[in-house]
Amino acid sequence: MRDTGKETVAEHYGKLLGIEPPWEVRTAQLDLLRGQVEIEVAWNESALVVCPECGEPCARHDHAPAREWRHLNVMQFLTIIRARVPRCACSEHGVKTVRTPWAEPGSHFTLHFELFAVQVIAACRSLTQAADLLELGWDGVQRIVDRAVARGLARRSTDGVLYVGLDEKSFGRGQRYVSIATDIKGARVLEVVPGNDQAAGESLWQALPAEQRSRVAAAAMDMSAGFAAATRTQAPQAAIVHDKFHVAKLLNDAVDQTRRAEHQQLQAAGDDTLKHTRYLWLHGQVPEAKRAGFAELLEINLKTARAWAYKEQFVEFWAQPSVAHGADFFAQWRRSVMRSRLSKVKAVAKTLHRHLTNLLTYFLHPITNAVSEGFNSRIQAIKADARGFRRFANYRTRILFHCGKLNLLPVLPSSPTH
Ligand SMILES: [Zn+2]
């Protein structure tokens, strides 16, 4: 009776795991102390093995040393599969470890576990939370993320990507940057690379196969020289469209610098007019409660107010109906700015004038880096989850995992046919 019972437990686990001949479950033991179920799977010695490279049946050479795979928990018990996988001696490929039906080569997890883990990680706010839920260490979670992204990238199609965004993001402390490429219509991150210079821009472009790269119609980017130069070498046909968020930021900074200088001047004379007004000048919308006060500020003859007005006027540039209208609008705006004595705004007008050709492309390809901006909070959260990215590579794969719209899931073997 006892023997039969033991067999039944092994058979039972065999069915649960979907183990089929010539693999079989030898033993299934419950280790109450460790809270663990350990399942030993073995290969039927009389069966032929198949070379993992060419699929030809061949003789069994020997067995690889015993290995373990983490499987889905049985009830509350952590479940481990243990096996010595046979190695074949293929006449063409030499000695190779055969493939197991329950795991991808090189993984320490079964397919079922990885499938579950990928979904848990995708749903979690942080890697810590995922690690806790999965009862895994950080490295284990990171390995699952890496493998999922490798799977997703191998399956990814970039056919039809016509609009690309290149954008830098701050990374780590100090002036360190990473750059990301986005598929603007597909609203997904295509690649993440360290740095923000021309070489970084070129690496980003190379995320697209050469043929698709040559079909990209336009790319949104800031006015730094690096990304534009990279675009000219990697996708010379693509129109460069300088991103309106970056233009808005330049103008905002000019207003802010003007305010700071003017505030210092006024304060030296005991005038607190500009105190606590910083955000009123920067945001498009002034809060209801501050509106009356702000209207009064605009009545006073302040340099800050004039700089603010030029910034506000420029918003209309983007609404022009054509390249010709855009060019006319810009010429008028610039003339007016250059007659002013607002050195910071004048500097921005000069920069914009230098890049005018690639500002006017907006009227042919109205694209921006809004997709990239939209990923900011997610990327910030990944960055804040600091323990996980000692290495840039971890950071990259985690951004691609969460923002790449990749097909990350492993494919389970077809269900048993018996
Ligand atoms: Zn072979």
Tell me which ligands are bound: zinc ion
> What percentage of residues falls in helices of 4 or more residues?
40-55%
Beginning-to-end CA distance, first to last residue: 27 Å
| CA gyration radius, whole angstroms | 30 Å
Q: Which regions have little confidence, pLDDT < 50, spanning 5+ residues?
A: 1-5
Q: What structural category characterises the helix and strand content?
A: alpha+beta
Number of strands: 14
Summarize the main sheet.
Answer: 5 strands, mixed
In short:
This protein has 418 residues and is an alpha+beta fold. 45% of the residues lie in helices and 19% in strands.
Overview of this protein structure:
This protein is α+β, with helices and mostly antiparallel strands. It has three domains: 1-102, no CATH class; 163-243 and 368-374, Nucleotidyltransferase, domain 5, CATH 3.30.420; 244-363. The protein has 17 helices and 14 strands. The chain has a five-stranded mixed beta sheet with strand order 12-11-10-13-14, sandwiched between helices. The longest helix has 25 residues, at 244-268. It starts with a helix and ends in a 15-residue tail after the last helix. Residues 1-5 have low confidence and may be disordered. The structure holds zinc ion (ZN). The site of zinc ion has 7 residues, from loops.
SSE arrangement:
Blueprint: H1 2-17, E1 23-31, E2 36-43, E3 49-50, E4 57-58, E5 60-63, E6 67-74, E7 77-83, E8 86-90, E9 94-97, H2 111-123, H3 127-134, H4 138-155, E10 163-170, E11 177-183, E12 188-194, H5 198-205, H6 210-213, E13 218-221, H7 225-234, E14 239-242, H8 244-268, H9 278-282, H10 291-299, H11 303-314, H12 323-339, H13 343-354, H14 357-360, H15 370-374, H16 376-384, H17 392-403
Parallel strand pairs: 2-7, 10-13, 13-14
Antiparallel strand pairs: 1-2, 3-4, 5-8, 6-7, 8-9, 10-11, 11-12
